[in-house]
Every structure is written in structure tokens, then in C-alpha cells.
Amino acid sequence: MKKLLILYSTTLFFSSVALLSPSGVSAYTDDGKIPHVDRNVQFPPTRWQIVRHTIWLHVPKHSKALTELSINVPKTITISNDLNNIKITDEKRRHINAKISFNNRNIKIVFAEPIPSNTKFMIEINHVQRQLFANSYTYELFAKFVGINADIPIGIAQFHPYD
Asked: Which of 71, 47, 64, 76 is nearest to 122 (CA)?
């Protein structure tokens, strides 16, 4: 009976970890034409009130170069006015130069040089203060490209509080 209880509890533990852990797997292939959210992670993955939200973006090889990014911030969080809390790096953790502004629940990022196709990069938003009883936190992302001056929706990044 004791062995059976250990077996069931171990199975339940690993099933829970598999369901709750953030996944690095992306369903997107590299032959698309529009940048997309590859994945997103919250740290720490608990119900702490102040966390870091990280959004990984992918500009596929058939996409135009990305010149500007606009991120609508959910109403259920507060972001620090200190723009040093927003960091943009490539997949090798090298800094990407950009002018960042925050206005009326919108983060606007204008890249110093367009982000070329076939590039992966991440945006870290530090010191995010969450409302503790929200079910999820959804950022909407829009982009502008070389030769296209319209905001094109490229996806959402949704964060869930963990118990």
C-alpha cells in the first residue's frame, strides 16, 4: 500500500510539473512572413505581487525588417515609470539599441536599427506589479516594418499566476 501511494504521488507530481512549467517549444516554423511571440515567461512563477515578464519574439526569415514595436499593457498590472526596467536583448543576450517610451498603458519601442529577418530577441519587463486576484495578464503586440507604417497585430503574450 505504501509503494502504491508513493507511485501515485510521484505520478501526480510529474504530471503537475509538466502542465505548469513554461514551455520553450514553439508551434511556429521559420517560413512565416509576420513576426510572432515565440514564448513568454514570468519570474518568479508564483503569486508574488512584483515579478518580471519576459516576451520572446521571432522575426522569421521571410519577414520584412521590424522597425517599431508597440505593446499594450493589461489594466491588471502596473509598470514602473523607470524605463531602465525594460531591457531588449537578442538570443545571445546582447543589448539591442532602441528608444523606449511609456504612454497611457502602451510601451512603444523604436529600434535604432531595424531588426532583420531570421532574428529572435526578447523583451524583459522588470518590476511588474500585479493585481493578485486577476486570472491572467495579456499583453497585445503590434509592429511596424520597413516600408509599412501601419500597426500590424503580431500576437499576444499571456501570463497566468501560478498557485
From this structure: 71
Distance between CA 1 and CA 23 in Å, rounded?
Answer: 35
CB count within 10 Å of CB 98 equals 17
Place of cell 522588470: 126
How many C-alpha atoms does 101 have within 13 Å on its Cβ side?
7
Pick from 116, 129, 158, 128: nearest CA to 141: 158
Q: What is the pLDDT of residue 132?
A: 67
**Distance (Å, rounded) from C-alpha 91 to C-alpha 112?**
18
Compute the half-sphere exposure of residue 36: CA atoms within 13 Å on the CB side of its CA. 14
Q: Is the pLDDT of residue 99 over 90?
A: yes
CA distance 35 to 62: 9
For 152, the grid coordinates are 500590424
- Which domains, and CATH codes, for the chain? 32-159 (2.60.40.740)
Average pLDDT over the chain, rounded to an integer: 82
pLDDT per position as a tens digit, 30-46: 557 889 999 999 888 77
Q: Which three cell numbers stand for residue 74?
A: 493589461
